[in-house]
Amino acid sequence: MDELLRELPEKAKDKHTENKKFFNKLKKKPPKKLDYIMQELHEEEFEQTDCLTCANCCKTTGPLFTDKDVSRIAKHFKMKDHQFISQFLRVDEDNDYVLQSVPCTFLGTDNYCSIYDVRPKACREFPHTDRKKFHQIGNLTLKNVAICPAAFNIVEKMKQRLQ
Ligand code: SF4
Ligand code: SF4
What we know:
mainly alpha; 3-stranded antiparallel β-sheet; 8 helices; YkgJ family cysteine cluster protein; Puta_zinc/iron-chelating_dom
């Protein structure tokens, strides 16, 4: 997995123009069965990919924390929301709460998330490849394929399937 993760940004860069064209086309005319196809491709991929051998999303990029995430996680630590925010979060250029630093503070050396049951919604949903109306998040997915080997594979299979 280490070698795969090292090579991934370069592989994603090589596919960038092709992927961009693909998502532009997809956005204009998404197939009727897209939600169903994405669900299938996502499940197939995650039957083979073990996130515990990877954790690249937790190591290289952080999630956004919604107000609900903050309250839930602060409660888990028996902290006030503002205490949790000042200890772990910062406000980014889009005015969202994000981690002060990566790798994520809550990631263990064994790649387990120490707040798994209360983790942010964005962590639960990453890499968003099973979400409905997937064609609407082409730009985000173009970035995610450079971080997430599963998302990279799903997009490659998606291109083959929809051609
Ligand atoms: S979601 Fe993607 S980047 Fe995150 S751990 Fe799983 S395979 Fe790795
Ligand atoms: S909160 Fe957990 S799942 Fe989310 S980035 Fe941190 S370690 Fe990963």
